[in-house]
């Protein structure tokens, strides 16, 4: 299959899967088989695309033109291939997990859930493969709209309120700020929005004040990146079922946000221009502030999903930090954090869901000694916590190392203590959970009986074990991952540019 056909297949498959789920919705076993088989086929297609990219090519697909300078086109470079691999690969695990969770918790509207999930993956892959800001923005909004019903899934007052905050915040930032930044870029670049190696705006002689304002519009307009103060949609979205939380925090939504921040930094501004933009320092300060303050808030939360939500806010800011460091090591650290955080945080949320399905417990203070009954779940939680903290041999350690190296290269020494303090706070709010569950203090009462006689459904136990193993496996694949991503950060060797994905 030719590379352009592979892109067509990757984009069309999630929609075909969604249609198949709708047709077979009345027969749950067939519906879920369609989801799992379809997700597996999609992952194979994305692997084929990534193999082409690893060979030094950047497959592209030109669809058409909405208006002059507004091309609907796709082009897969290493960073986009990485995001596509993360989204499609973890969809398989999340779908398997969802079968156990949704059935075990007797959730309603399961067919709608799986349909919206498939459309959300369609949006995430469109973001990953977009050749320009226009195409990316379209799929960015598809992702927002398709996940709104997932956040509101339970249909009660709390779910509706959380979903409203989710939708209004993400649409408000994207239309009010992100779209304005895109339009401004279109004007500054001479009716062009393509992602260009070295930076679309790098040779446009833009005034520092203008470049700073544009960068700040992008940083806060990409609301899915959850920089403070536009982070509050994320904790409010915790009313959704746990598989949705995993989607929001690990697979698609927030990763689409920080991925977009990286793309803008690398392909719109470029290393040389971004390192001289005064507003970059302001965004760096905001990212550092978000890392520390969100971690401190996480420590105060007794609700497990709320603690993990604020942890996500802090961990996402690592990627923004890497983007703003504007060195190859910083960009590599931010990109590796996308994959590392996806595996680690997805594990933590799936563990939280397994605990809830089995016991009905949501508060950390009620989980002491629970590891006696759910050892595999809490061992997976422990491994993922070590990865989030950055302790070898977990993949999260490589991301932090590269971010620190990037900070040294860029002469930004204050980033290093921020990352060190962040790791200490990670230890404080994550490690006590599995340790007190697996090794409770003497005299700790026996945990309450399971609300389900058989405990957590098997898929909700196996899935986090798989992603916990991935945290270790990716540690040893850090070298190949860095080699795969390296071409995305290198300066272009030619000044010739092909626009719009057209030959």
Structure overview:
With 503 residues, the protein is mainly alpha-helical. It has one domain (3-489). It contains 20 helices and 2 strands. The protein has a two-stranded antiparallel ribbon. Strand 1 (60-67) and strand 2 form a beta hairpin. Helix 10 (253-269) runs antiparallel to helix 14, helix 12 (279-300) packs parallel to helix 17 (415-430) and helix 13 (304-325) packs antiparallel against helix 14 (328-359). The longest helix is centred in the middle third of the chain and has 32 residues, at 157-188. The two termini are 19 Å apart. Mean pLDDT is 90; it is low at 493-503.
Helix and strand run? HHEEHHHHHHHHHHHHHHHHHH
Number-wise, the strands total: 2
Biggest sheet strand line-up: 1-2
Q: What distance lies between the first and last C-alpha atoms, to the nearest angstrom?
A: 19 Å
Question: What's the helical proportion of residues?
Answer: over 70%
- Globular, elongated, flat, extended or rod-shaped: what is the shape? globular
Blueprint (SSEs and pairs):
Blueprint: H1 3-23, H2 28-54, E1 60-67, E2 70-75, H3 78-104, H4 110-129, H5 133-151, H6 157-188, H7 208-221, H8 233-236, H9 242-251, H10 253-269, H11 271-274, H12 279-300, H13 304-325, H14 328-359, H15 375-389, H16 396-410, H17 415-430, H18 432-438, H19 458-476, H20 478-489
Antiparallel strand pairs: 1-2
Keywords, please?
globular, 20 helices, two-stranded antiparallel ribbon, disordered C terminus, 503 residues, mainly alpha, 2 strands, 71% helix
């Amino acid at each position: 299959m030719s590379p352009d056909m592979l892109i067509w297949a990757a984009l069309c498959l999630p929609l075909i899967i969604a249609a198949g789920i709708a047709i077979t919705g009345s027969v749950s076993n067939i519906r879920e088989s369609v989801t799992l088989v379809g997700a597996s086929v999609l992952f194979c297609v994305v692997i084929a695309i990534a193999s082409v990219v690893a060979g030094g090519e950047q497959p592209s697909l030109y669809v058409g033109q909405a208006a002059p300078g507004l091309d609907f086109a796709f082009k897969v470079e290493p960073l986009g291939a990485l995001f596509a691999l993360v989204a499609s690969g973890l969809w398989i695990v999340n779908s398997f997990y969802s079968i156990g969770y949704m059935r075990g918790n007797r959730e309603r509207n399961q067919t709608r859930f799986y349909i919206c999930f498939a459309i959300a993956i369609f949006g995430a892959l469109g973001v990953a493969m977009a050749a320009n800001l226009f195409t990316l923005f379209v799929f960015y909004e598809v992702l927002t709209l398709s996940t709104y019903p997932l956040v509101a899934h339970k249909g009660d007052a709390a779910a509706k309120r959380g979903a409203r905050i989710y939708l209004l915040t993400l649409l408000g930032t994207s239309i009010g700020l992100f779209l304005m930044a895109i339009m401004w870029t279109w004007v500054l670049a001479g009716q062009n929005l393509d992602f260009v190696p070295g930076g679309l705006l790098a040779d446009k002689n833009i005034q520092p004040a203008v470049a700073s304002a544009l960068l700040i519009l992008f940083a806060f307009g990409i609301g899915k990146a959850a920089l403070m103060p536009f982070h509050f949609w994320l904790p409010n979205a915790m009313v959704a079922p746990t598989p949705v939380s995993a989607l929001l925090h690990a697979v698609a939504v927030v990763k689409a946000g920080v991925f977009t921040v990286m793309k803008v930094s690398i392909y719109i501004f470029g290393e040389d221009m971004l390192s001289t933009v005064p507003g970059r320092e302001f965004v760096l300060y905001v990212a550092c502030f978000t890392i520390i303050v969100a971690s401190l808030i996480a420590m105060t939360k007794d609700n497990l999903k709320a603690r993990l939500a604020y942890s996500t806010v802090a961990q996402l800011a690592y990627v923004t930090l890497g983007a703003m460091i504007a060195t190859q090591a910083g960009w590599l650290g931010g990109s590796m954090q996308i994959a590392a955080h996806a595996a680690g945080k997805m594990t933590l949320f799936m563990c939280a869901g397994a605990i809830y399905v089995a016991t009905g417990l949501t508060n950390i203070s009620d989980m002491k000694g629970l590891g006696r009954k759910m050892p595999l779940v809490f061992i997976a939680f422990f491994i993922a916590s070590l990865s989030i903290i950055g302790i070898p041999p977990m993949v999260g350690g490589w991301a932090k190392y590269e971010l620190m190296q990037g900070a040294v290269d860029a002469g930004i020494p204050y980033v290093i203590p921020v990352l060190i303090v962040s790791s200490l706070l990670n230890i404080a709010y994550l490690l006590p959970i599995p340790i007190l569950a697996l090794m409770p203090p003497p005299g700790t009462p026996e945990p309450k009986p399971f609300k389900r006689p058989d405990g957590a459904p098997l898929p909700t136990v196996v899935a986090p074990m798989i992603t916990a193993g991935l945290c270790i496996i990716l540690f040893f694949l850090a070298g190949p991952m860095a080699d795969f991503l390296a071409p995305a950060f290198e300066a272009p060797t030619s000044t010739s540019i092909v626009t719009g994905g057209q030959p």
